[in-house]
Amino acid sequence: MTPQAVLAQPFTLPNGVVIKNRLFKSAMSEALGNRERAPTPELVRLYQAWADGGVGLCVTGNVMIDRRALGEPGNVVIEDDRHLAELKAWAQAATRGGTRCWVQLNHPGKQSPKGLNKETVAPSAVPFRDDMKAFFATPRELTDAEIHALVERYGRAAGIVKQAGFSGVQIHGAHGYLVSQFLSPHHNRRTDDWGGTAEKRRRFVLAVYRSMREHVGPDFPVGIKLNSADFQRGGFTEEESLDTIRALAEAGIDLIEVSGGTYEAPAMTGIKADKAPVKDSTRQREAYFMAFAEKARQAVKTPLVVTGGFRSSQGMAEAISSGAVDMVGLARALAVEPALPQRLLNGQEPTHVIKPIKTGIKFIDKMGLLEVTWYTGQLKRIGKGEPPKPTESALWVFAKFIAHQLGVGQKKRSPTKLRAS
């Protein structure tokens, strides 16, 4: 089969839901929510562009479950049905042309820039490494009651997602956010029922999944984005990830997207904490996490997706034909070329080569936050109806981000703002 023929094949989930092709748009943070944390017309326009671009399954950027815990300025938050009309408009645009759209639900935990929230919380009060403490505060450890309340928030938000007309929901269990923090022995140093052993560290993600399932029923797709590893000393390992995958598969998860890394070790962008370059064998196979996906495939029959590193239709088709994965995940490429799926399905190659975003300042370039910020800017351009700008300066984007963060912090500290809140 030609690469485009492989990519054009429909895929049926175990619950019978059919996805029209094997191209999976992975989550990217759009930061296109309004001041009330509702979806905006720009967000609707962005997802209409992706749906019209031909992707089979589109996963939204991280939608937060608690307005007190934002990951970035401009996050959409789902706590209840107060913004149901806006969510329905978003879902309608995102599912045009038979595209499926799942909402990724998230809580940042400790991984939230200083000044954005009143406080940050996490499984344990573990600070960031020294060169990142200026940007991220040391979190407060969650109480047992707070953990149970968060589990319910995930479930309630999933129920609203279904009510709004989206096609499914995804748990963000990767990249160093709250679920990922619970799984990691580096971030989770608890000695109660939520930590202390790998089995107890898995308890939170399994509780989140069960809560979601209770709110959406047995036939609504629930997936997860999960780290293959954290790539941090003392962090979540491949062995623990495989055990987590087995537990989720047994619980009934519908699809697992494999990624890896955190803000401190952004392996999902091709950068690791130890500065080790991506191996030649990995580059030749394109996907960063294919070797792990092969191990996961041996462990479970649950549908798998790998995101990160794909550059050509041939590389994508080979990943699927190998049997290790069922779909290929694309993210950054779709931020600079939203109609890329159409090109691939027409036998054409991407017009832009995706490379790590760098300012030339080492301590900044090691931060996954820079990649998030640069690509968020591209998404905002598409949302405004403007073309992406692949050559935009990373240093300029980072400077704008810092200026915005300082402005947010000043507003939060002002008496007028406090009275209005």
Give me the CATH architecture, please.
Alpha-Beta Barrel
Span of the ends, CA to CA: 59 Å
- Estimated radius of gyration: 20 Å
Number of domains: 1
Largest sheet: 8 strands, parallel, barrel
Estimated share of beta-strand residues: 5-15%
In total, the number of strands is: 13
H/E order of the elements? HEEEHEEHEEEHEHHHEHEHHEHEHHHHHH
User: Low-confidence parts lasting 5 or more residues at pLDDT below 50?
Assistant: 266-285, 412-421
Q: What is the CATH H-level superfamily?
A: Aldolase class I
CATH C-level class: Alpha Beta
Task: Strand order, main sheet: write it out.
Answer: 3-4-6-9-10-11-12-13
CATH names the topology as: TIM Barrel
Number of helices: 17
Helical residue percent band: 40-55%
The average pLDDT score comes to 88
Which structural class do the helices and strands define? alpha/beta
Shape designation: globular
Fold topology:
Blueprint: H1 3-8, E1 11-12, E2 18-19, E3 23-25, H2 41-52, E4 57-59, E5 63-64, H3 84-94, E6 100-106, E7 121-122, E8 140-141, H4 144-164, E9 168-173, H5 178-183, H6 198-201, H7 203-216, E10 222-227, H8 238-251, E11 255-259, H9 280-285, H10 290-299, E12 304-307, H11 313-321, E13 327-330, H12 332-336, H13 340-345, H14 362-365, H15 368-383, H16 394-413, H17 415-420
Parallel strand pairs: 3-4, 3-13, 4-6, 5-6, 6-9, 7-8, 9-10, 10-11, 11-12, 12-13
Antiparallel strand pairs: 1-2
Helix pairs in contact: 2-3, 2-15, 3-4, 4-7, 8-10, 15-16
